[in-house]
Amino acid sequence: MDNEIEDDFIKSFKPLLEQIQQLQEQAYYVYKPQIEHLIETKTKDENAIGRLLDHLLDNCGNDKVLLLYKKLCRYYWDIDPVATAFYIQSYREMWDDETTIDEI
């Protein structure tokens, strides 16, 4: 009986997880052109970069969003390495699963 309750409980989260995945996928398409424009125009606006990194961080469970996050961190490093290090650490605290990941 306990296994049935546990299975039902887990199944109840499936729609929510699917919605999260869809939102993360949408985030990629929303933020990709913004990041490309920011980098192409060599924008140095730290507030704009920080806002994008904040939004991306929430969606780094998606591999494509994670690639955007890494790309923006690499760009931001030359502008503000201390702030970039903060974002790298924030990613690790939020998403790292104790296994080795590629360096940002």
TrEMBL record:
This is Uncharacterized protein.
